[in-house]
Amino acid sequence: MTASAPHIPLVLDPLIAEAKRRARRRRFLAFGLVAAAAIVAALNLSLRPGQPGRGSLATSSATKLPADRLIVPDVSIAGIRVGEPRRDVEARFGAGKRLEERDTVSYWGRRLVVSYYRFGARADRVTGLVTRWPGFRTRSGLRIGSTWKAMRNAGFLCDDYCVPSGGKTSANGFSATIFNDSRRQSRTVASIGVG
């Protein structure tokens, strides 16, 4: 005689199944978050402007930083010369980004602003170049942030602004370079204009 105990139904099977379902959802959600983070990081690195070495999608000549970062007082900035025809500038660097001022464009994210002289219906010659970016330098190393003392030591005449000694003003028909301290208190170069 075998006595069997009554079978008590355990409700564990549905609980285990629910726990497994929830674990699968957590794994799927974690995988999805990791994949989304990887995509965001890849897009962030590839869409950074001005960094073609990192796979930049913005590779137009207007967004890449210039290879020539030289300021030649009374002559040029980044190889763009005062008096140069507009078509030559646009052939090398593109049309630039138009600014609100008439016949004025910027290159490299406003690192250099170029003004053109209007002769007749078309503005066809560079008349002015202005920068506030410290990446451009003279051969002697003067740049945005240079002190008035460094400017004087390099042979510039400084009062409210600095000009090359012996430099002429554009009002006399010659190009001039002005190293300006827009704050008039710090006595450091805040903007450089050629034209």
Would you kindly provide a brief summary of this structure?
This protein is an alpha+beta fold. It has helices spanning 12-46, 86-93, 148-153, and strands at residues 71-72, 76-77, 80-81, 97-98, 104-107, 112-119, 122-131, 156-158, 161-164, 177-180, 191-194.
Give a topology summary.
Elements: H1 12-46, E1 71-72, E2 76-77, E3 80-81, H2 86-93, E4 97-98, E5 104-107, E6 112-119, E7 122-131, H3 148-153, E8 156-158, E9 161-164, E10 177-180, E11 191-194
Antiparallel strand pairs: 1-2, 2-3, 4-5, 5-6, 6-7, 7-11, 8-9, 9-10, 10-11
Plain-language structure description:
There is one protein chain. By secondary structure, this protein is an alpha+beta fold. The protein has helices at 12-46, 86-93, 148-153, and strands at 71-72, 76-77, 80-81, 97-98, 104-107, 112-119, 122-131, 156-158, 161-164, 177-180, 191-194. The longest helix is centred in the first third of the chain and has 35 residues, at 12-46.
